Inverse folding.
């Protein structure tokens, strides 16, 4: 039992953080708790610190909105935290959609290669969607992705009531299960794309020691962005690509402890060791 | 051997066309979805809301207005509500706006989509701004006279009594009931310069489907324009200032004297 917890420690920690964040938001709405009020688009921490979704605020800027001070400060705080410290951690440590897509991927692994990718989508699609979101925000004078975002529907649904939002969650689950492996979070979602762009300079990174690696490659199938693990078994250093969500699943499953969380000097992304 | 990123001209052109094609397909599909999702001509927004177009530009969809509403009046649009997703609205027939003195929904709004200045007034003394909930303009009440039972001669003043601006936003007009010959009609009349659109009248209306209901002001109200001015009202004359002096006339003033214009030649020849 203890051993099992140890082998899943980051997974358990992540689920704990995800559930607590949504729990505090639910408490803030339903019971007036003051820890975290609002939702993942904008919230207020301890009734003082504003936190805003920087991608939403960027879209609003393109839409011609007058960005209020709270939104500007909130988005810079969040962007600063992820950009300098935590990378793309939002996707695997906060976003509730991650639980859905992780589950789909887990079931996929159970079925192994019998579940084929029926459709191929480029990993870079999300970056084009980021660009399209900003253009359409400008054309339609409203935050274009926020109006259709499945992430927003699900996270808001958890806090304020789902409506028919459950169908959106189910669609994402089935898309990841039967259409494209890691399809939504790893290919489509422009919020993840946005965080991947800003994560390239962040300091918390997965660190690989290739001398300890036995090339068992247990880390690859569990990784939702397995293209970031190119250096496995080849060279030591940090996983530098922004798509890495710092989920730590590779660290959990590595039997040789060849992977661990490390801290890179901020802004020094060329330095490997 | 060509590596991944070395393409010959044909491949480059093919990639370019494919990329542009995909972006167009995605863009068109997304655009049509957006224009459908944005359309909400009858939606009623919380107090202090900007005009619909600007409101949708400004709202970040955090729901803080909804969670600060003590009466659970405000609803955050979820899929299936047929309103722009994540933005607050209200259904007065179910829960009206009770016009809190301190307007917590507007105070909670971080984005300026609910604009404080629209529901505040300046104090005369020090110029400090204080809440003035009577400036709220959620919409305006409209009466369906055919289905208002007061117009049948039945005594009902539910809306009149429910109104927070009693005898100001809704007044009762007395007139003789000729059908019975000895009773009076007491007919509700909306005064849309006072009406906040809070919907307490719609909530209170006793008919099966409310005969008084709130519509967005830009849907329900007409606009006179500067062609007609109340000459007996000083304030109304101010509207003339907004008229640009070189207002284009639809047709130039005729050169003929009026008598010739009215007496058409052909008509006289008949």
């Amino acid at each position: 039992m203890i051993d099992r917890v140890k082998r899943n420690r980051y997974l358990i920690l992540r689920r704990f953080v995800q559930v607590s964040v949504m729990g505090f938001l639910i408490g803030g709405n339903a019971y007036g708790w003051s820890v975290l009020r609002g939702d993942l688009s904008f919230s207020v921490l301890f009734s003082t610190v504003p936190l805003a979704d920087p991608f939403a605020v960027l879209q609003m800027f393109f839409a011609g909105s007058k960005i209020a001070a709270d939104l500007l400060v909130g988005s810079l705080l969040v962007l600063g935290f992820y950009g300098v410290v935590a990378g793309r951690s939002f996707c695997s440590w906060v976003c509730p959609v991650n639980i859905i897509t992780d589950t789909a991927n887990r079931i996929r692994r159970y079925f192994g290669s019998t579940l084929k990718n029926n459709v191929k989508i480029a990993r870079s699609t999300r970056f084009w969607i980021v660009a399209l979101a900003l253009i359409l925000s400008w054309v339609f004078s409203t935050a274009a992705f926020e109006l259709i975002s499945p992430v927003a529907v699900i996270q808001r649904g958890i806090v304020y009531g789902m409506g028919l939002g459950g169908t959106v969650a189910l669609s994402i689950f089935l898309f990841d299960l039967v259409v494209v492996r890691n399809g939504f979070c790893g290919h489509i979602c422009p919020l993840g794309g946005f965080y991947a762009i800003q994560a390239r300079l962040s300091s918390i990174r997965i660190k690989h020691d290739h001398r300890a690696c036995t090339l068992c490659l247990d880390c690859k199938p569990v990784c939702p962005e397995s293209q970031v693990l190119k250096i496995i078994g080849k060279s030591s250093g940090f996983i530098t690509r922004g798509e890495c969500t710092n989920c730590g699943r590779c660290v959990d499953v590595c039997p040789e402890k060849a992977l661990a969380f490390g801290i890179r000097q901020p802004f020094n992304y060329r330095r490997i060791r | 051997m060509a590596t991944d990123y070395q393409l010959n001209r044909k491949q480059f052109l093919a990639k370019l066309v494919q990329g542009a094609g995909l972006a167009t397909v995605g863009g068109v599909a997304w655009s049509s979805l957006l224009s459908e999702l944005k359309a909400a001509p009858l939606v009623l927004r919380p107090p202090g809301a900007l005009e619909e177009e600007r409101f949708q530009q400004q709202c970040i969809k955090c729901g803080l207005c909804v969670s600060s509403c003590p009466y659970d009046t405000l609803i955050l649009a979820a899929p299936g509500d047929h309103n722009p997703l994540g933005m607050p609205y209200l259904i007065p027939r179910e829960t009206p706006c009770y016009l809190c003195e301190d307007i917590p929904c507007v105070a909670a709004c971080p984005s300026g989509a609910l604009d404080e200045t629209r529901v505040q007034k300046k104090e005369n003394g020090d110029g400090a701004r204080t809440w003035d909930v009577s400036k709220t303009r959620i919409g305006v009440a409209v009466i369906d006279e055919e289905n208002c039972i007061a117009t049948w001669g039945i005594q009902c003043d539910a809306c009149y009594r429910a109104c927070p601006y009693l005898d100001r936003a809704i007044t009762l007009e007395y007139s003789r009931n000729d059908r019975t010959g000895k009773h009076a009609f007491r007919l509700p009349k909306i005064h849309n310069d006072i009406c906040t659109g809070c919907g307490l009248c719609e909530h209170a209306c006793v008919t099966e489907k409310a005969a008084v209901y709130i519509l967005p002001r830009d849907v329900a109200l007409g606009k006179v324009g500067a062609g007609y001015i109340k000459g007996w009202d000083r304030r109304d004359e101010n509207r003339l200032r907004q008229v640009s002096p070189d207002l284009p006339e639809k047709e130039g003033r005729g050169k003929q004297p009026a008598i010739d214009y009215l007496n058409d030649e052909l008509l006289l020849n008949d």
In short: Chain A touches chain B through 52 residues (CB under 8 Å). The beta strands of chain A are 36-38, 42-45, 49-52, 204-208, 237-238, 259-263. The two ends of chain A are 35 Å apart (CA to CA).
